[in-house]
Amino acid sequence: MTSSQSTALSPSLLVAVGRSTEIASPPPDAAEAEKEWSYTRAPDALSARSAYQSRRGLRREIRIFLTNPNAIVGVLFLASVVVTALLAPLLYPGDPLEMVSRPFLWPGQNADYPLGTDSMGRDVLAGIVHGARISLTVGIVATALGLTIGIGIGAVAGYFGGWVDEVLVKIIEIFQTLPNFVLLVVLVAIAQPTVTTVTAAIGIITWPTVARLTRAEFRAIREKDYVLAARSLGYGHARIVFAEILPNALPPIIVTSSVMVAGAILMEAALSFMGLGDPNRVSWGSMIGSGRDVIRTAWYLTALPGLAIVFTVISLNLISDGLNDALNPRFSEERR
Amino acid sequence: MTPLMEVHDFAVGFGSAQPVKGVSFDVTAGEMLAIVGESGSGKSLTALGLIGLLPSHARKTGSIRLAGRDLSDLSERQWRSIRGREIGMIFQEPMTSLNPVLTVGEQIVEVLRIHDKIDRRSARKRAIELLDLVNIPEAGRRIDDYPHQLSGGMRQRVMIAIGVACNPKLLIADEATTALDVTIQAQILQLLDNLRLNLNMAVILITHDLGIVAQWADRVMVMYAGRKVEEGLPQPVFEHPYHPYTRGLLAASPRAEVGQHYRDGPLLEIPGSIVSSLHEKGCAFRPRCPDARASCGQAVPPIKLISDGRYAACPLVPSQFGRVSHDALVGA
Amino acid sequence: MTLLSVHNLSTQYSAGRGTVRAVDDVSLEIETGETVALVGESGCGKSSLGKSLMRLVEPTSGQVTFKGSDVTAMSARELRGLRQRIQMIFQDPFASLNPRQTVRAILTAPLKVHGIGDGKRRREIVEKIAEQVGLPPDSLDRYPHEFSGGQRQRIGIARALILEPELVVCDEPVSALDLSIQAQILNLLVEMKQRLSLSYLFVSHDLSVVRYFSDRVLVMYLGKIVESAPTAALWASPAHPYTRALLAAVPDPAKRKHAAPISGDLPSPHNPPSGCRFHTRCPLATDLCRAEAPRYRSFGENHTVACHYAQ
């Protein structure tokens, strides 16, 4: 019966194997299709549709991000801060800590110093422009440091599991139980308060957050079939970690990192405000700190650098939200 | 006999997509109607539409009448009085459809008390009866179990108990046995069959498994790309499938009962995969159809009466189909 | 010739309060060119067995021999060499492909890892296998989420076959696919088997697919193999009551409104029944079954059964 079955069948319905060359041939156009369908395979619905999608598909996240008005505002503001910081030596050559005019000039009083001068006669605008350099440098470098340590430790803990994981989690927990800011103050107080030590100290207190997040992502992704497939193909640990797991673990880490930059900027400001920053460099925090004594008479000395911090931090948070919206829905399409 | 539910030209759209393109059918009291189709056929969306559970941004057209009452324009509030009481539904995944923090008893009692004004004690008594009805052993003890303490088959029985708690006239089972093992699946199907006979309840069985349909359904409706393409009694449909899609589906299933084996030759394939677009002109199956001709691209073929109770949406007559021996197809 | 043999293999998982013996003292052999199906219900340990014999899951005890070399004793380095010769195809074509890699990257990586060919040669190999499994030529530079389930499974098959393995463990490769796509993939697997002279271990719960696709069937229940027979013989004369129940439970148009063959659920694998593990659901069970685990008995050519009362 079984053998007669295949012979009894119409050749037109029998799309037998062994014709894979036709399978691979490009789908015929509609007119041709009328005659020839019986011997070729129809273009796969999804891949036919996604031909359009894939041309621009790589930049889909960027497109989603750029259609988010809040994120655009954030990017524009942050970009202007970055440009200002880069152009600081051109805009205000010379040391912003130098006395340039009489003290307590209010904003608008003298066109040469649009934002006025402080109690020592230093130009406030020059301070804010140069302060942007310090705030951004500390924010970005400290975050990069925190990410490097955090991703490294989190990835090892999450990927290997077992006793390695237990030991690393204990270390993470020790760091997390210590109050962050106290630790930061102690670290800076032990070392000399320079931009480098402040940056390093902020990096050291922020990595445990990244490590926890990375570990959680790695633990989840480690169980996925495509990681099992990678193991079954004989891939080494390095390839599995860096090529298979890490790219899939990155979206939430990227989202967190923009908030971390904001956090680092705030920490640097707080340290400088307390006088624990680098005394030889002007930063937004140190400007607020030095304006604090005269806050009743010259409140603009605290308010102006304060606004710079507030807007920078808000713009980073807007960017973070935009990234979150852009990077995470990607997987909603995965399971249709 | 007037049908219990009449669905006329029911369609569902989302944005530019039209996953259900207009289906009409009816269900009589106590009948088991099977809707078969693959993913993308629109069968599950049709089911959700029948019970008013489509997402709010879905565009619905057409009419649904239950025992003469038009359900097309009900408010969410009115739907709530229909769901559970008039129409029950059970889903594929019994683990996620049960609330993990409530005991199964609490969940059944809740349903009973929403629809009927009864006190807790009699609701609990009724819940035990219901668990008994769905053949859960030691129902009096099992009622205080949490869903995770039950096996997959037991959970699906609890879902059925909830589905039939208020004596609905219609129960919709959406792939209700797909996640279950074959021996458990047989038990659940048998239970559904007994329940609908004892309670005179119509059942719409939504599945992709042709074997289940052939074994249990009174009537079968085949859907493809949002439309009904064939309808009839299971035996004639499976012995003499009319629509090329139905014929292809049957031919693509390995036939264990005749001992079909790979060493004797390949399975028949339906080429490609389901294509559904809004601006199609002709038959949606045309790109995969071995018998398609130019005329198939002109207009969507209407569903027409082939013989008594048998409908198909294909303009060709059997003599025009490829010389497929139906006897060979079904291994008669 | 025996390609793979498994002796008394056990695999335990620690789960919650206790351990689960997912695979319990299992022995089997796979001949070169043979397709052996492993069937059973979910939780019976069939997937664990497939993964254990590749050491994707470490077995607790027992021995696996592949072409004379002891897999269970292999070092990590030797194991990497074995990966070229035993490969796996996964059930879920949505979960088994890395969403952030193009098809080309997915298919090229195994060649790079095993140092096969230079850049140009690798490109040729990738393009050839893509054509063989029926992927359109423009698909290589796309991402997995742009494909339908059937096409994704073709990518998974291409990845498993690109190293030209001798044995492929297929873990439910068609159960997540629509019926019309299932036939395409089964035909492809048969075609590739003939083209590359492969042997398959085909893990499945779908008996009609197993009947079509396998040469020999192993029936598994709660971590144990209860019956082993050539496919045709198993369907002609199933000996174990569990096998008979499984076969009878397959929906069949000819058996309208047939009573469910066995009642009850699979017992918890945490605490398997004493004696014969099937005795809680078995219509033939006696005190002997409750007390004593049955030995394997020969029931015809290549046909063995673990049942005290198999007729």
TrEMBL record, chain A:
Family in the record: Belongs to the binding-protein-dependent transport system permease family.
Protein name as catalogued: ABC transporter permease
GO BP: peptide transport; protein transport; transmembrane transport
Transmembrane segments: 65-92, 134-160, 181-205, 253-277, 298-319
Keyword presence, Amino-acid biosynthesis: no
Domain ABC transmembrane type-1 residue range list: 132-320
Keyword Transport carried by entry: yes
Main location: membrane
Coiled coil: none
Topology class, membrane: Multi-pass membrane protein
InterPro entries given in the database record: BP-dependent_transpt_permease, MetI-like, MetI-like_sf, OppC_N
Species of the source: Neorhizobium lilium
TrEMBL record, chain B:
PROSITE patterns xrefs: ABC_TRANSPORTER_1 (PS00211), ABC_TRANSPORTER_2 (PS50893)
ABC transporter domain location: 5-250
Protein name (record): ABC transporter ATP-binding protein
Assigned GO CC terms: plasma membrane
Family membership: Belongs to the ABC transporter superfamily.
Alphabetized NCBIfam families for the sequence: oligo_HPY (TIGR01727)
GO BP field: peptide transport; transmembrane transport
Keyword set, alphabetical order: ATP-binding, Cell membrane, Membrane, Nucleotide-binding, Transport
InterPro entries given in the database record: AAA+_ATPase, ABC_Ni/Peptide_Import, ABC_transporter-like_ATP-bd, ABC_transporter-like_CS, Oligopep_ABC_C, P-loop_NTPase
Organism the protein comes from: Neorhizobium lilium
Membrane topology of the entry: Peripheral membrane protein
Keyword hit for Nucleotide-binding: yes
SMART domains the UniProt entry points to: AAA (SM00382)
From TrEMBL, chain C:
Domain spans labelled ABC transporter: 4-247
Any GO BP: transmembrane transport
Keyword Nucleotide-binding attributed: yes
Molecular-function GO term, any one: ATP binding
Keywords: ATP-binding, Nucleotide-binding, Transport
Any one Gene Ontology cellular component term annotated for this protein: plasma membrane
InterPro entries xref list: AAA+_ATPase (IPR003593), ABC_transp_ATP-bind (IPR050319), ABC_transporter-like_ATP-bd (IPR003439), ABC_transporter-like_CS (IPR017871), Oligopep_ABC_C (IPR013563), P-loop_NTPase (IPR027417)
Keyword ATP-binding: yes
Residues annotated as signal peptide: none
Main location: membrane
Membrane topology: Peripheral membrane protein
Coiled coil: none
Domain of life: Bacteria
Family indicated by similarity: Belongs to the ABC transporter superfamily.
NCBIfam families, per the entry: oligo_HPY (TIGR01727)
Full protein name: ATP-binding cassette domain-containing protein
Species assigned in the record: Neorhizobium lilium
